[in-house]
Write a structure and sequence with these properties.
By secondary structure, this protein is α/β, with parallel strands linked by helices. It is 24% helix and 25% strand. A hairpin with a 5-residue loop joins strand 3 and strand 4 (86-90).
Length: 495
């Protein structure tokens, strides 16, 4: 209900007095009062940030925050139709209010009514699984692809996209700031062909398989920016603990590369979402940091911990993508290989993480490989197996574990190969071996029949000191497990 209703009575009384002669100035005063009254009525309605709109998805079975603004010192009520429980809070002197709302098991659609006297109703609200998807251009790349850079096989998904399906999409608009912001640009949308076409391909193909398997509503928040560095997504407080990061640049007022500048994307694109609940994180980033793997080894664990703290979920699953084969400066150089090695090591060092291997999903000429369906679905394998506890399928490609050496032949053992390795009964591609002279030559390699082991050797090398598999910027091998998931590139230094 609008306040200052006595103004209406005053105006009507004035109009009703036929003896009162209204001059031009009187009419202007009446118009001014009417305008002020209209503004007063509008301002009385609560205002919510963009992440709370029609069609949104809330994480099931959690205590999630819903916040907004009203007039200062007002009592504000919230009612969710799933249980019709009334929550009441009082806005502070600046009008800010915040509810802590308990969500039920997956379901919907529901309504949420928030009122400070004049109700605001959110319609078509679903309760389900919410995943936060972030990174740089390979996460940002839409289902329809970039101009001249397609996403192979995506068009049928776009054509068949069904807005009646409980799969909802939210894209955070690109923004940066030196100071923390309180809102982002974006809105929840249905999975129409138009919205799917423009949404993150990796995130969509993840959510598509997840929703199909779990049969519950799924909400995807895409918060990514092309060419962004990991430092840009981290807070000042976190980066203060890593002295190798130069924070003096934050004294500047202009930034030619804001998406590569520490804290700027965190402040504008992540911090405003503080308080929402998500099930887990998907992360596809690293190309912009590929020249400094040693620093990334320090940044990544701190980043994961920061986001787990941010979303108030200490053990929150964090699944990320190994950067794919690409020529970079030269396909035979090692800068990207060294970074992939860093990412592989991090999977065993940071708890409750999983890495998608993309050794078969790169493009020599394009930094944006077209195999986004593979990447998204492999992320879903990790989530379905490790987060949702579904057994019976492989969720990772082979990862090197150990070696033994006998008569100049090395036998390599792999994890994630319980059902054996492939292809059997033929030589494998992608292996190299070096002796004490440090010169690498193409190695012969074969799967030891029916096992998770590979034998590697070369008649040209005695006393081998190092073995590599696809350990170059762009080199494609063919070692997989029985599920067809590719082995991660690696190198073995033989002692």
């Amino acid at each position: 209900m609008c306040r200052q209703v006595h103004h209406i009575g005053w105006i009507m009384k004035l109009k009703g007095n036929t003896k009162q002669k209204l001059n031009f100035m009187d009419k202007r005063i009446i118009l001014l009062f009417t305008a002020l009254l209209a503004i007063s009525c509008v301002s009385a309605k609560v205002k919510l940030p963009s992440v709370f709109t029609d069609h949104m998805v809330l994480q099931q079975q959690t205590v999630t925050k819903i916040w907004g603004k009203a007039d200062g010192g007002r009592m504000v009520e919230l009612v969710g139709s799933w249980d019709n429980k009334t929550y009441t809070v009082k806005s502070d002197e600046k009008g800010y209010f915040e509810f802590e709302v308990t969500t039920p098991a997956a379901g919907g659609p529901y309504t949420i009514q928030i009122s400070d006297g004049e109700p605001l109703i959110l319609n078509d609200v679903l309760i389900g699984e919410v995943w936060f998807c972030s990174g740089q251009s390979n996460m940002e790349m839409p289902v329809k692809g970039y101009r001249g850079q397609p996403v192979y096989g995506s068009h049928p998904y776009i054509v068949s996209a069904d807005e009646k399906r409980p799969l909802r999409l939210f894209t955070v608009g690109n923004a940066w700031s030196k100071e923390a912001k309180d809102d982002v640009e974006g809105h929840w949308s249905l999975s129409s062909p138009k919205e799917v076409s423009d949404f993150s391909a990796v995130a969509y193909f993840f959510g598509n398989l997840l929703q199909e398997k779990l049969q519950v509503p799924v909400g995807l928040i895409n918060c990514s920016w092309s060419a962004s560095k990991i430092e840009a997504w981290m807070s000042r407080e976190t980066l203060d603990t890593i002295p190798e990061v130069d924070l003096s640049v934050l004294k500047n007022t202009e930034f030619g590369y804001p998406n590569g500048t520490p804290t700027l994307l965190h402040n504008a694109m992540v911090q405003p979402l503080h308080g929402i609940c998500v099930k887990g994180i998907l992360w596809y980033q690293g190309e912009a940091n590929s020249n400094a793997p040693a620093l990334y080894k320090k940044l990544f664990p701190a980043f994961v911990q920061q986001w787990r703290n941010f979303f108030h979920s200490p053990g929150m699953p964090f699944y990320y993508v190994q950067i794919a084969p690409w020529q970079s400066g030269n396909k035979d150089e090692l800068d990207w290989a060294l970074f992939r090695e860093c990412q592989l090591e991090l999977m065993s060092e940071v708890p409750n993480t999983g890495m998608v291997i993309t050794a078969d999903a790169g493009s020599e000429k394009f930094i944006h490989p077209p195999y986004k369906i593979k990447v998204g679905e492999r992320l879903a394998y990790w989530a379905l197996a490790k987060t949702y506890g579904i057994d019976g399928f492989a969720y990772s490609g082979p990862v090197y574990q150990s070696y033994t050496l006998k008569d100049n032949m090395a036998e390599l053992t792999f994890d994630y190969a319980a059902d054996g390795l492939n292809p059997e009964k033929e030589l494998l591609d992608g292996f190299e071996i070096a002796g004490k002279d440090g010169v690498f030559v193409e190695a012969k390699a074969e799967v030891i029949e029916g096992s998770g082991k590979v034998r590697v050797w070369s008649e040209l090398v005695s006393n081998p000191v190092e073995i590599r598999y696809c350990f170059r910027n762009y080199k494609i091998g063919n070692l997989t497990n029985n599920a067809g998931l590719p082995a991660s590139p690696f190198r073995v230094k033989i002692k």
